[in-house]
Design brief:
Layout: H1 4-58, H2 63-83, E1 86-88, E2 93-95
Antiparallel strand pairs: 1-2
Helix pairs in contact: 1-2
Length: about 110
């Protein structure tokens, strides 16, 4: 029962399964990355909206606006650490330079 023919078939099946598994992982990884990247963008847009609201309600230099500005910077920092990029919801684009301190956050 443990003939060379059976061992070869088992070996070929195992190699084929590993190759198929590798292919599936490689095709699933970009969509997982895109979902995570999209969540990062969403968190930044939410923080930008909260900042805009605080500025409109309390003024540009209010304590509330400064707090929301810190929250926005923290979200951008988080995205930067994860993806080496950050989203600017006002211009609707990703930035590859860590230059959000020069962005017009109000």
């Amino acid at each position: 029962m443990n003939s060379p023919v059976i061992r070869r078939k088992i070996w070929k099946t195992a190699v084929a399964a590993l190759l198929l598994n590798g292919l599936l992982v490689m095709t699933a990884a970009p969509s997982m990355w895109a979902d995570e990247h999209d969540r990062c963008r969403h968190r930044i847009e939410k923080a930008e909206a909260k900042l805009d609201h605080a500025v409109a309600k309390h003024g540009e230099h209010s304590r509330q606006a400064e707090e929301k500005r810190r929250d926005l910077r923290a979200e951008r920092e988080r995205c930067w650490n994860e993806y080496h990029g950050w989203w600017d919801g006002h211009t609707h684009q990703w930035h590859s330079d860590r230059d959000w301190d020069h962005d017009s956050d109000h």
